[in-house]
């Protein structure tokens, strides 16, 4: 058992934490959200300079060769600042997919731009009318035609879909689910974006006989569901870490507020009922922190069943903790907690979104119970 | 002993239901069904329809346009309004300033304001909370200094709901800074068009801008706009807050949400979005809330019955104190369920709140999370649930 | 809607409440529990004198002709004193069964003794190896033999089984489930009693070719399950009322304790966290009180589906409220809460038992969800 | 970073496991499995088996018979003991008076007591709580007055666990009534056979009589039985309470319960007592607790790791403070599950506690409720969870 960080990991965590503290105060964040793509290109460029966009890629591909722990450290730091840049979609989701399944040729084309912060990629998998969180029962189809593929279907809730240059799209083929690399501005592709309640962007993407070159398939035909499973597990682990960063900052803000806010002539932090509530928030934070760590170290497990059970367990805990901490932070702040002018409400909303993404706590509890429980 | 309504009460229920079927505009019903945000025009339109029917201000004294309804009728009316998906009339006009004027206003004040209040010709807002005086209302600092036949008001109110629409504000202001905190406060009616008033909207986490800061810079208010006696404002405010308890648990609203959840469950099951396991899980949770809601409903009915027939104890007094706490907890729990039902597509904001791109989905899915966020306020405003528990501990349990 | 009591009901409630207050303080109860049958015969005789044992029977049968509201009032009063006499088993369970299904001849034989407090009757239905809370899937068999029935099987958790003179026994026949009136000391009947954790008695009852006369069948052959359903619904309604009485007394004791117990130089009732806990207990009490009323007024409903859904809902609420109030009362009392020398621990245990009997909150939640929910 | 144990640690685990397999008597294992009550003879027997192996007092200094185990090894040992269904050694002997003597005792005291403590030749009890001094320990009133080379002790202790078996008590007594509450307290070792001691058992809600009142009527205690300095007893008591945190969450015990619940689930499913709906419901609840337990386990491991390698922060300090609260909550939640599994047959008491009729059922069913009742104490004793929350609010959150 070794819960220490390597010197390199410690440095990485500190660097990103410091960067967020320096550059991502709440007012700056409000500015970034209002910039045209929905986030700050300048911040993104600095992420590139810090090497954060290279995290999941092998060293021979120009990457950092990092694993779950490094991603955990970065996401936790990003969580503290409620960072809205498309790190989860481009680096964690699509980066993992590329690292896992891209051919050397595909990597050579895509990775330099991605790592340099020039190329943004989004994962287009979920569908509004498919069984929720299915990996396989989607309707989008890829039909082979004269050495091309034609894509038809509708994807929904594509994270950062409208700023993406490229899309990784899942579709049914006669050999099973396959993934395709598609240019977001290609013929037959329509992207309609909208803001999300947590200060980000989301898109519906429609494919109408959109032609895709044969060499744009990512991984083997029929391998799509397996790749998606790994990619989503990696994203869940990353989200649990982001949530821990948010909860940490939220609890800090809340206790600070209770110390400074006075009513009835005393700091409201002197009220025992509120103190005990904060202790319960701390307990939820520490349980969540443990499960973020559990998720990070579970990613390399070879046994797919165990890995998926562990990831579900982490998502359950993060959902429970995030809801409690988010709701209570708002409640303890009183009216100021429900204004958009103060960070705590945004933290609450992002925690809500994190629970919703890739299956909420209840969904994963069903899945885990179906699998018989942990180990 | 029974929980059924009398044939007369049932007939009244049918009358309300028929009225809503015939007169509630479809677009309003649809907005309420989806829990989308209602604009000023929506609320004014509906208030005037109600007023034309004589039902805008049923709890007011009959002489001032009220109805001589029993507590059970008031309960039924509120429940049917909620189940029929009718907008709630402005509480500031109907439940607050109207009753205060009826009870404490001068004849001139009644004459001038009451019919306009009932018809929403004047839109009222409530100027109580201040920065630093939320739950601890008695520590408010906005000053009103007498200057001839005017008060000169200087200070700031905050969280003033719908001040951006308001023609008038009823406000608590400090007229005697030397008196004990609750003594030197007066109750003033302030014309929002007066020079020196600035309204700054505050965006809330549901993306709306219905909360406001209101700044007063030497605003001159005629002394005829004082309610009752100077420095007695705290008494009028207390009377206003304890005005009506037949609807305090808002059971009808939660019942309507349960019906809505059932509809959505069916929708998701039918469309294949929800697996049988999803369906079973959500149904079990919904039924859990249904049971709590039934318990809350009967607790509310016990209070209604006690109000109808004082002296027949079924523990109703202590029951009344808990309706607000449990009622808000249930309302909030039901909004959580709708967020779960909405799933990841529910991340998208309603475009009308942002003037952004075209809608990704209609209706309920995109309204789910904003309504959830919005409803966090119900356990904060009007005396937070923590304050409510302090009150119950002291007054009911004697702790 | 009418939530007022009639003058007669008010008097009944006050009489029993006063009786319990006068005769059933905690130390007396401790004595009654240690008397040979596990309760006080003298108290039982006084119940008879007060007419309580006649409650569910028609006036022409020497009864009181009372309904769910009267039983609610009595049970609530008994709950306040944690009364251990076999009122639930003899009067509510078996009394209801007899009132519903006994022939005039059977009534003539049994009711006078029951009403006079001389005859005790217990319901022997549940079986250790049957599906839990089943009405029909039992193993005990009744076989017709020369104008007699022979009973074979094992019943478990028979409330007050070892003090009972008579048993009402459910058994399979070739026409379905039937109920039989059996003498507890008859040939082939073995009763093994034991104390329960809530100060009462319970028994296993074994039937080995126990002969039962043909006229001892209660109700038509095959009608047993229907009778059992009504009987158990009536018992659940009674239990919810008893629980309300217990919770009421328990909350009183707890707030009283918090006012008198001092630590750190102040009454512990001045601590806000404990105050808020008591308020949450009060909320649970009031919700439970409402549902006891709901159960009482639901009993006469003709629609069996609605009746059974309503009863399930009441049992769910009582289970939830009882657990919370019981656990918190113990916790707030501290060490004294876990001694057997103080009433609060016994209240906690009885509330635990009440949840367990006739299906706990989780069981009824499943049943109610299966039925689609309330109305 | 990883959560796996090293090969050395794994080997140690196997060693503990093998020992338990070979040396834990079957009857004890069975009693623990069913969570039946253990008698004095049971505990003495097991303690001596452990002691013979050198594992009775692993956390003591090596010079006094301890093991130089790492925090990870201590964690593994405790976990395997729990998973192997071995009784827990007397905390009063092993975790409390032993370490206090090692640290603060005179050579003569160590000589006289330590080996007898380890072998349970002397059974110790803890005399801290008094009527009126529970969580507020510093307000204790039992007096010890110096009289030549003796102290004369008069007063009363309460909730003294297993005093009925005890040969010795370590007690806090007031030696200077004039000093501030926490100052004038001394730490005395009292021979339970002394004249003037009366032990009155208190029956608890689980039907057992392991709690006691102990009355002191001018009991003479040789002054050589004072620990450390007079009036410094509070410091020694505090050292004792903070002694060991590698097992504070008692994860092993809860893991064992989860395994047991799974076994019982299978049993009830197989026998047809549980319907598929029952099975699904119970499984879902158990899995919910499994997730919390995993989170608690890793939190405990973070503390173990921090103790092993101070300086590498993973938030372990604040984590340690919450282990007791969450650990007890989980232990209690698991006992609730077993009560649910036991069903109505679980109403019957274990006959051996009452000398009543023959058993109605064996084992776990009848032990379910008493164990549930018994475990209510874990959130009360040793500093109630309310006191724990006060401490965390103050020391960790700075409120």
Detailed description of the structure:
The complex is a heterotetramer, with two copies of chain A (375 residues) and two copies of chain B (399 residues). Chain A is of the alpha+beta class and 375 residues long. Chain A folds into three domains: 7-120, Butyryl-Coa Dehydrogenase, subunit A, domain 1; 123-220, Beta Barrel (Butyryl-CoA Dehydrogenase, subunit A, domain 2), CATH 2.40.110; 225-370, Butyryl-CoA Dehydrogenase, subunit A, domain 3 (Up-down Bundle). Chain A is 52% helix and 17% strand. The longest helix of chain A is centred in the middle third of the chain and has 37 residues, at 224-260. Chain A starts with 6 loop residues before the first helix and ends in a 5-residue tail after the last helix. The mean pLDDT of chain A is 96. Chain B has 399 residues and is of the alpha+beta class. Chain B folds into three domains: 7-89, Butyryl-Coa Dehydrogenase, subunit A, domain 1 (Orthogonal Bundle); 124-231, Beta Barrel (Butyryl-CoA Dehydrogenase, subunit A, domain 2), CATH 2.40.110.10; 247-395, Butyryl-CoA Dehydrogenase, subunit A, domain 3 (Up-down Bundle), CATH 1.20.140. Chain B is built from twelve helices and eight strands. In chain B, the strands form two sheets. In chain B, strands 1-4-5-8 form a four-stranded mixed beta sheet. A four-stranded antiparallel beta sheet of chain B has the order 2-3-7-6, with no helix packed on it. In chain B, β2 (143-147) and β3 (150-157) form a beta hairpin. The chains are: A alpha+beta (375), B alpha+beta (399). At the A-B interface, β6, β7, β9, α9 and α10 of A face α9, α10, α11 and α12 of B.
């Amino acid at each position: 058992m070794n819960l220490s960080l390597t010197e390199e990991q410690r440095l990485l965590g500190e660097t990103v934490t410091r960067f967020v503290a320096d550059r991502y105060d709440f007012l700056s964040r409000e500015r970034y959200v209002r910039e045209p793509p929905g986030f700050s290109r300048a911040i993104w460029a600095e992420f590139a300079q810090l090497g954060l966009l290279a995290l999941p890629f092998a060293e021979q591909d120009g990457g950092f060769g990092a694993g779950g722990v490094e991603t955990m450290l970065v996401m936790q730091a990003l969580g503290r600042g409620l960072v809205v840049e498309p790190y989860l979609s481009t680096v964690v989701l699509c980066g993992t997919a590329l690292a896992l399944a891209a051919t050397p040729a595909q990597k050579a084309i895509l990775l330099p731009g991605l790592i340099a912060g020039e190329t943004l990629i989004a994962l287009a998998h979920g569908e509004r009318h498919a069984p929720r969180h299915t990996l396989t029962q989607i309707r989008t189809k890829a039909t082979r035609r004269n050495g091309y593929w034609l894509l038809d279907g509708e994807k929904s809730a594509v994270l950062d879909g409208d700023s993406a240059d490229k899309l990784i799209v899942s579709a049914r083929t006669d050999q099973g689910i396959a993934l395709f690399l598609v240019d977001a501005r290609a013929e037959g592709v329509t992207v309609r974006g909208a803001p999300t309640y947590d200060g980000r962007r989301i898109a519906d993407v429609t494919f109408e006989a959109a032609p895709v070159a044969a060499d744009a398939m990512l991984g083997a035909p029929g391998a799509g569901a397996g790749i998606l499973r790994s990619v989503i597990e990696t994203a869940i682990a990353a989200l649990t870490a982001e949530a821990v960063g948010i909860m940490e900052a939220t609890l800090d803000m809340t206790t600070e507020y209770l110390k400074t806010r006075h009513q009835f002539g005393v700091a409201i932090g002197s009220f025992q009922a509120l103190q005990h509530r904060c202790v319960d928030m701390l307990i939820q934070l520490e349980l969540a922190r443990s499960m973020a760590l559990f998720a990070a170290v579970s990613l390399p497990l070879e046994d797919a069943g165990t890995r998926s059970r562990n990831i579900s367990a982490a998502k359950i805990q993060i959902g429970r903790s995030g809801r409690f901490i988010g709701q209570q932070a708002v409640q303890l702040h009183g009216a100021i907690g429900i204004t958009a002018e103060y960070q705590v409400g945004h933290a609450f909303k992002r925690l809500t979104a994190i629970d919703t993404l890739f299956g909420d706590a209840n969904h994963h509890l069903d899945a885990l119970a179906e699998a018989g429980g942990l180990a | 002993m029974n929980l059924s309504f009398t044939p007369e009460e049932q007939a009244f229920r049918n009358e309300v239901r028929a009225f809503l079927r015939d007169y509630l505009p479809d677009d309003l019903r649809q907005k309420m069904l989806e829990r989308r945000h209602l604009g000023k025009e929506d609320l004014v339109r509906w208030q005037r329809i109600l007023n034309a029917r004589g039902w805008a201000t049923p709890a007011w004294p009959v002489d001032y346009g009220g109805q001589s309804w029993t507590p059970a009728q008031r309960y039924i009316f509120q429940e049917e309004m909620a189940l029929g998906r009718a907008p709630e009339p402005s509480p500031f006009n109907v439940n607050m300033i109207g009753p205060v004027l009826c009870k404490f206003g001068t004849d001139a004040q009644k004459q001038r304001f009451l019919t306009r209040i009932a018809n929403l010709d004047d839109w009222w807002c409530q100027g109580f909370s201040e920065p630093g005086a939320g739950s601890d209302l008695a520590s408010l600092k906005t000053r009103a200094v007498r200057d001839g036949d005017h008060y000169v008001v200087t200070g700031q109110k905050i969280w003033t709901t719908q001040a951006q629409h308001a023609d008038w504000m009823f406000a608590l202001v400090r007229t005697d800074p030397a008196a004990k905190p609750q003594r030197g406060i007066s109750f003033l009616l302030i014309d929002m068009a007066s020079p020196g008033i600035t309204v700054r909207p505050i965006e809330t986490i549901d993306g709306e801008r219905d909360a406001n800061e209101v700044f007063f810079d030497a605003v001159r208010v005629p002394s005829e706009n004082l309610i009752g006696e100077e420095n007695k404002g705290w008494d009028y405010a207390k009377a206003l807050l304890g005005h009506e308890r037949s609807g305090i648990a808002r059971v009808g609203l939660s019942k309507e949400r349960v019906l809505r959840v059932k509809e959505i469950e069916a929708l998701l099951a039918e469309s294949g979005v929800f697996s049988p396991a999803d369906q079973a899980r959500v149904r079990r949770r919904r039924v859990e809330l249904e049971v709590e809601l039934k318990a809350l409903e009967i607790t509310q009915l016990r209070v209604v019955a006690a109000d109808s027939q004082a002296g027949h104890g079924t523990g109703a007094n202590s029951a009344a104190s808990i309706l607000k706490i449990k009622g808000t907890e249930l309302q909030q729990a039901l909004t959580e369920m709708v967020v779960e039902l909405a799933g990841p597509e529910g991340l998208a904001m309603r475009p009308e709140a942002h003037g952004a791109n075209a809608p990704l989905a209609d209706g309920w899915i995109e309204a789910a999370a904003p309504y959830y966020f919005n409803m966090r306020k119900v356990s904060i405003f009007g005396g937070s649930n923590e304050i409510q528990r302090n009150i119950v501990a002291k007054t009911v349990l004697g702790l």
